[in-house]
Amino acid sequence: MELLNKYLSGILMPAFLITLGIYFALKLKFFYIFHPIKTIKAMLKNQKQGFKALCVALAGTLGIGNIVGVASAICMGGAGSVFWMWISAICAMSLKYAEVYLAMKFRKERDGKFFGGAPHYIRDGLKGKFGTKIAYALSCIFAILCVINSLTTGNLVQINSVSTLTSFSPLMFGVIFSALALIVILGGIKRISKLTSILIPFLSITYILICLFVILGNIEKVPMVFTMIFRDAFSLKCATGGFCGYGIAYTIRYGIARGVISNEAGCGTAPCAHASSDCNSFHGQSCLGIFEVFIDTILLCTLTAFVVLLAEPTNSSPMNLILSAFERYMGAFGARLITILCVLFAFATVICQFFYGIESIKFISKKRYSNAVYTIIFCLVTVIGAIIPMSLMWQISDLVIAIMTILNLVCLFLLRKDINYR
Fold first, then answer.
1. What is the model's pLDDT at position 325?
2. What is the 3 state secondary structure string of 54-120?
3. Distances from the Cα of 261 to the Cαs of 16, 254, 367, in angstroms?
C-alpha cells in the first residue's frame, strides 16, 4: 500500500491538483484574487441560504486534518510541507469552485429539499459523452469510494486520533462517541446542519484565538518559521547517496496529501453539502466553497503549523506533538483545551461524513435497508476506530482520497464547459 500511495499520492494526485487547479484558475480568470470585493459580496448575498450548507461542509473539513494532519505532514515531510499546503490550497480554490458549481447545476429536488454531489454530476454530466451505462458506472464507483472514505478518513482517522485523549479507555470512549453520533445522525441533515452551524463557528473562533495567543506571544520567532518553511520546501538534504530531489518529492507528497485531507477540495465530497443549500445562485454558493478552502487551509492549517514549528518539533507522534506544542506555551490548561477542541472537531467531522456516506448509499441503492445497514456499520466502525493502530488508517485514507481525487478531477475537466464564474 505504501508503494501504491507513493505513486498515487506522491506523483499523480499532486500533478493533477496543481495542473487542473491552475487551468481552472485561468478559466475563471482568477476572479477571486483580482476581484475579492465582488467575491465577498457574492458570499454575503448568499449567506442566509448557504450558511448552514457551508457549516456542514466545514464540519467535514475542519478538525483532525487541520490539527493532527498538519503535525503529521511536518513530522513526515518537514517544515516545507506547509509551503506545499499553501500551494495546494491556492490551486484548490478554483477546483472547489468548479465542483460546487457542478453540484449546484446538476442537483435534484425531492419533497422541497435539494440534494446532489459528485456522483450526480458525474452521471448526468458525462452521459452525453460516454453514454448512460458508462457514466452511471463511473458515478457508482465514485459513490462507493465516497462511502469508504466516510468510514476511513471521515470516521476511523478522526476517532483514532482522539480516542486516547480522555480518561476513558479507548473502547469506552468509542462506545460513548458512537452513541452520541448516532443521536445526531438519526435526525438527518436538518439536525446535522443545525448542530454544525452552532459548533463550527464556536470551535473555529476559539481555536484561532488560542493559536494567535501563542504566535503573538512569540512574534519575534515568526520570521524564523517563515525561513524554515521556504528553505525546507525546496531542500535537497536527501541528495546524499544519489537521491537528488527525494527530499523535495517527500515534502510535496505530505504537504499536498495532508492539504487535501484537510480541505477536501478536488476530491468531490464537500459538494454534497453545498448541493443541499436553498440558495439559487450557483456562483454565490461556489464562492462560499472558495471561502471554505481559505478558512480551512490558508488560515487554520497555517496557524497550527506555526504553533508546532515555534515549539521546535521532535520526532513525536502527531497528536503528542500538538499537545506538547500548546502545553509549552499555555501550560496544562492549553493541552486540556486543545484536547476538548480536538474531540469536538472530530465529532463534527464524523457526523458530517456520515451525511456524505449515506447520500452515496442512497445514490447506489434505493432499498431502505441499505441506509440502516450503513448506519450500523458506521457506528461499529466508530467503536473499532478507537482501538486499532493509526498508521494503517492514514495509508488507507491517503489511497482512497488519491483515487477519488483523480477520478473527480478528470470529470471536472470533462465538464469544464458547464462551469461559469458568474
1. 85
2. HHHHHHHHCCHHHHHHHHHHHHHHCCCHHHHHHHHHHHHHHHHHHHHHHHHHCCEEECCEEECCHHH
3. 15, 10, 31
Q: Decide which of 15 and 371 is more confident.
A: 371
Closest of 65, 329, 114 to residue 210, by C-alpha: 329
How far is it between the farthest Cα atoms of the chain? 64
| Burial class of 58 by CB neighbour count within 10 A (0 to 12, 13 to 18, 19+) | buried
Residue among 322, 315, 356 at smallest CA distance from 337: 322
Amino acid found at 256:
I
304, 70 contact by CB (below 8 A):
yes
Q: What is the pTM of this model?
A: 0.84
Looking at the domain that runs over 2-29+52-418, which CATH code has it been given?
1.20.1740.10
E strand or H helix that includes residue 306: helix 302-310
Cell of 102: 457542478
Alpha-carbon Rg of the chain, whole angstroms?
Answer: 20
Distance from the Cα of residue 142 to its chain's centroid: 17
Residue 192 has which C-alpha cell? 446535522
Whole-number Cα distances in Å, 375 to 78, 86, 174, 357: 38, 36, 15, 9
Residue 395 has pLDDT above 50, yes or no: yes
End-to-end CA gap in the chain: 42
CB 407 within 8 A of CB 138: yes
pLDDT 10s digits, 304-320:
889 988 887 666 677 78
Sequential DSSP letters for 217-234: HTGGGHHHHHHHHHHHHT
Q: Between 47 and 43, name the one with better pLDDT.
A: 43
328, three cell numbers: 509549552
Reported as a single tens digit per residue, the pLDDT across 11-43 is 777 788 888 888 998 888 888 888 888 888 777
Pair 361, 140: CB distance under 8 Å: no
Measuring CA to CA, how many Å separate 46 from each of 29, 51, 180, 197, 272?
Answer: 21, 8, 32, 15, 17
- Region 1-5 average pLDDT: 65
Among candidates 375, 334, 43, 66, which has minimal Cα distance to 200?
66
The domain segmentation of the chain, as residue ranges, is 2-29+52-418
Burial class (CB in 10 A: 0-12, 13-18, 19+), 395: middle
